[in-house]
Amino acid sequence: MIPFQNESNKDRLERIIRNEILPKLESIVGAQLSEFVDLLLQSSKLKNFAKDHYLEESRSFEDGKLFYITSGIARTFYYDTSSDKPIISRIWKKHDVIFDVNSFQNEEDRVETVQMLEEGELLTIDYYSLKNLLNNFPKMISCVLCLQAERERYFMFYQRLLKLSVEDRVRLYLNDNPTLSNRINKDYIATLLGVSRSGFSDAYAQYKQGSDKSFAK
């Protein structure tokens, strides 16, 4: 959503909530009371974050936040102790919601770190504000369950993706995310897809050739 000229942060926050977020919530739980909208506005913050900024690190569940991306790209990753390397679990883009549902629901420490890969703007809600929101409007828990279901669908998709050839992994992932390779370091995509940098480069070259031929038709 493009900022209006001379639009204040508060006005922009309200516009994003009413135009982008509320329609999605209402498609799940129906029309919302004005009291809920008011509390959602009070509970949310809109901030800009620089590239490489760590939004949150693996810590207590009470330090966790919900992030809604209005612009930019981020990654979630964790450290694999056996290889002593970061493992990227997902790359997130505009309109995605980054939220550790299991940590929030089970009050367990978070294992993943969230980092910006591109400068962006995010709406954030901290743990206690979200807890208060759900306590006051318990039917909104359905939205949390929908997020959990989406995470499970993505996990199944990702596991199937990793069983494919390197060429098919790169092709299918970039077909779903066509601009990603032009906006972030390709090493992040290679790591997510579980392929070497050289293997990704070869598969990416094939992908580009196929894309260029399709475009030329």
UniProtKB/TrEMBL annotation:
Native species: Pedobacter hiemivivus
Protein name (Swiss-Prot/TrEMBL): Crp/Fnr family transcriptional regulator
